[in-house]
Backbone:
């Protein structure tokens, strides 16, 4: 195979991968938000025309979306993307995974001097890169949401004590607090204004935000709607509990930080050292792949498994449930 064809494939893969990330990061609002706000501001007929223009996509994306939209895998991807607040469809994310796999496969093929084995390993690893990015976005967004949750509860408590209804208190949260908690409660308010029940709207919120503290607050609101009671007092108690939990979690993070970062360093150091030696002294590293080849692959495989096990053991030791 001519070398220029492979380099052309690498360039195309890099370009498509970067374009996908840029589109993901620069999207300001989801299609659902645009439709809801347009519905509240304009007539439904005008909204439908704008949606037809906004939802135009490539034939490949439409084909993949049609195949995965009704499957459990497509539902799982859509839920994960919603939790990460990434404005992508399931089919678009699958295409992004495919491009990442091709890019990493070609990169590994060239970096390891045309080794198809490492090209296969790189392609498999590339599939998981978008998933890891989504997981990172989820963790950061959930952490930020959890930090804002006590302020949200306090604002709702003050609103309820001054005579606001639960819907009006949520509207105040959507106006007064920063993102991401304001964005999520704005969706809740918009859904309720379109006729969705409060219980269903809060269930949708809980599906997007996998927070135990939020689950506690939503359960309290649903129970109060059914049996009655002083909702302001209940939310005030929950707010105090959440604040104490956040404080204790912060203390535990500072205590276990050394163990966590030691585990990450010890896990990444052999990989970084191996890549450095591969670039500086290729002949020395090629000893792993001299006859018998199976012995070298077994050594690398066992080393990788032990590194992964050691990392997860240290991570588990430093994790404290509160």
Residues:
């Amino acid at each position: 195979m001519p070398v220029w064809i492979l380099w052309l494939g690498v360039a195309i893969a890099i370009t498509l991968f970067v374009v996908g990330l840029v589109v993901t990061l620069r999207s300001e609002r989801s299609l659902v938000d645009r439709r809801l706000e347009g519905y509240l501001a304009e007539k439904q007929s005008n909204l439908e025309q704008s949606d037809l223009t906004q939802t135009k996509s490539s034939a490949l994306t439409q084909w993949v979306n049609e195949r995965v939209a009704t499957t459990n895998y497509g539902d799982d991807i859509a839920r994960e993307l919603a939790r990460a607040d990434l404005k992508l469809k399931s089919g678009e994310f699958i295409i992004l995974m495919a491009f990442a796999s091709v890019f990493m496969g070609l990169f590994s093929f060239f970096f390891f001097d045309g080794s198809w084995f490492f090209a296969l390993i790189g392609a498999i690893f590339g599939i998981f890169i978008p998933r890891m990015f989504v997981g990172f976005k989820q963790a950061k967004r959930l952490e930020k949401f959890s930090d804002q949750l006590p302020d949200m509860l306090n604002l709702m408590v003050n609103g309820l004590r001054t005579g606001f209804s639960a819907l009006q208190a949520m509207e105040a949260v959507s106006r007064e607090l920063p993102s991401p908690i304001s964005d999520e409660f704005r969706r809740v308010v918009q859904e309720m204004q379109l006729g969705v029940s409060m219980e269903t709207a809060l269930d949708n919120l809980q599906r997007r935000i996998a927070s135990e503290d939020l689950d506690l607050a939503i359960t309290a609101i649903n129970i109060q709607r059914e049996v009655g009671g002083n909702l302001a007092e209940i939310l005030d108690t929950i707010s105090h509990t959440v604040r104490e939990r956040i404080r204790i979690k912060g203390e535990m993070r500072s205590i276990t930080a050394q163990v966590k970062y030691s585990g990450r360093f010890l896990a990444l150091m052999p990989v970084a050292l191996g890549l450095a030696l591969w670039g500086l002294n290729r002949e020395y590293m090629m000893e792993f792949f001299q006859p018998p080849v199976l012995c070298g692959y077994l050594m690398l495989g066992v080393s990788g498994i032990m590194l992964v096990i050691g990392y997860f053991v240290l991570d588990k030791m430093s994790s404290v449930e509160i």
Q: What stands out?
A: The radius of gyration is 25 Å. The chain has a mean pLDDT of 78.
